[in-house]
Structures are given as structure tokens and as C-alpha cells.
Amino acid sequence: MARASSKTGKASKARAKATKSRARPTATVNPTLKSMDDGQVRWIYQTMRRIRRFEETAEEAFKAAKMRGALHFYIGEEATATGACAALEDGDFITSTHRGHGHCIAKGARMDKMMAELFGRTTGYSGGKGGSMHIADLELGNLGANGIVGAGIPIATGAALGSKLRQDGQVTISFFGDGAGPTGAFHEGVNVAATMKLPVIFLCENNQYGMATHNEFANAAPISARGPAYSIPSPKIDGNDVFEVYETVKEAADRARNGEGPTLIESLTYRHKGHTVLDQKNYRTKEEIAEWVARDPIERFRTAVSSAKRMTAKEFDAIDADIEREIENAVSFAEASPWPTLDAIERDVYAE
Ligand SMILES: Cc1ncc(C[n+]2csc(CCOP(=O)(O)OP(=O)(O)O)c2C)c(N)n1
Ligand SMILES: [Mg+2]
Q1: Domains within the chain, CATH numbers bracketed
Q2: What is the model's pTM?
């Protein structure tokens, strides 16, 4: 009996141990994070923070009447541009939108030249005459932000046709919003690319609103339901999960480089701010905004990286401090730069 009870005691201890280890599973590291080297992990954090701090600083400058025009903030959507550009090669192209700061920064744009453009100064990307919605950098493969909804889609298709003809192995991503889903440019661009098997990725940033209109009022069918109509894949992904964006775009880029044609990706995300800097946001509830702020892509990435012990708090803080310096320099550079003069008004308008 005594022996039996001691045996039972051992067994129950073993069971308790097993239950305990089931109750507290060791945190599983995201497999994509595991596959990334330290440089990639740092780059992703740095890029998302750069985008956020660039825009927060631009908002302050706008509210202090230091800059004019329209500003469309990407805050909350940083994982989509960052994960997508992380999956590209250096020679690849992107086309951007009116909400383009994130795409530009993720493709490697200089924040001082971007800030100078927002401040309307000659040292900006478009000589201070374009502003936030007209930033391009051909050397980096950024074919440009675009104030016309959907207009980047046929441009990306054209760039991909060029790559196919040159056989240079380059891939183009067209970023566009859910509000571009109903445009003719979307259907024409995707149809041509699918028919000709062009190396292009159509990346819809579904932040759920086009100005004040919910995406379901504007699009008869979800973007991700449209792939079969063009015989192409159309995955729907969590656009606030930088790892999922990276993996999906990487697969699409491999398909494109292998001559298998385009992919349409619907990346579900949310803008924390209004449509523009002046938007009153009265078409969304406080609860909805709070729910999405709680899914902040930068916080999620930081938590995943910290719990996998890939970066320490000190390392994150050091990156943050570097970015603050970079932003301060960008603002000083912009403020110290000259305004365009009147004789520049017709320059760059017509071919010379
Ligand atoms: C062809 C065209 N129609 C209308 C507008 C006015 N407009 C500017 S932004 C916007 C909403 C775009 O929504 P979406 O594509 O979802 O992008 P988001 O602003 O959500 O990033 C509209 C209708 C425009 N710029 N171009
Ligand atoms: Mg939208």
C-alpha cells in the first residue's frame, strides 16, 4: 500500500509537472523573425519608427503653421510599407499614393529632403513645388507618390512591362488604397498585368475607409475576392503584422521574378489619424479607433522581438535616440533652406 501510494505520489507529481509545463508553454518565436538576421530586425524597427516620428513631427509643424497644403498620415499602417519593402531587392520599383510618406521612407528616401518638400523649400524632392503628395526618387526605384486615386496602378503595370521586355528581373509594387478598388485604373491595370504575366504586385492597403466612406460601401466585392476574376492569387493578410506582410510579398516577388505574373494582396490595416491633418474623424467611433490603436504594428513588433530576446530595451532606445537626431536635422535642414523663387514657377511644368 505504502509502495503503491508512493508510486501514485510519483505519478501525480509527474502529472502535475506535465500540467504545469502545459499551462506555461514556452513562448513560440515567430518563424519569420527566427529566419531574419539582426540587421533585418533592426532595419524593420528603425523604418517603422522613422515613419512614425517623421509624421508626428510634420503634424506639429503643420499645426504651428510652418507648412501648408495637405498631409495624409500613414500612422498605424507602418507594417505594410515596411514589410513589403523589406521583401524587395534594391533595383525594384514602387508606386505610391497620396498617403505616401511611409512608402518613401521604407524605400530608403532621405527624410531631410522629404521634410524640405513638405516645408516647400528648394532642397525638397520636387524643389518645394510638389509637397507631400509629389515625392519621387527614381534612383531608389520610387516612381512617385500620386494625388490621383488609383493612378499609380497603371504606372506600376507599365514599369513591370518595361522589366519584362528588358528581362532585368525587377519587380514593381503598386501600393494603393481600398478607395482605388472601384476605379477603372485598377481593373485595367490588373487585367493587363495578368494577361501579360507581368512582374508586379498590387498591394491594396485596406485601411477600411476612403475619406469618410467605409470600404464596404464603395467596393461591391472585397479586393481579396477579385483574384479569380483575373486568374491570379489574391491573399488577404493582417497588414499590422510586419512578418506576415514580409512573407506574403516575398512569395509574390518570387512568383513575379519566376515569370508567373502578378499577385493581388489585400493588407488589412487602419489609419490612427483622420483622412488628412484637418479631418474631424466624426465618421468613426472612439471604440473602433481604440481597438486598432491597441493593435499598433510597432508595439506588436517590439513585443515579438523583445520576447524572442533579439533586441534589448537599451538597443531599442538607442535607435529611437538616433531617429530623434535625424528628425531634428531634417527640420533644421528644411527651415534653413530657401523658398523657390517666382522664376521657378513654370520650370518642370513643360518639357524643355
Ligand atoms: C481620381 C480621384 N478621385 C477622388 C479623389 C479625392 N480623394 C482623395 S483621397 C481619397 C480617398 C482614397 O481612399 P483610399 O484609396 O482608401 O486611400 P486612403 O486615403 O484610405 O489611404 C479620395 C476620394 C482623388 N484624389 N482622385
Ligand atoms: Mg482607404
Answers
A1: 40-333 (3.40.50.970)
A2: 0.92
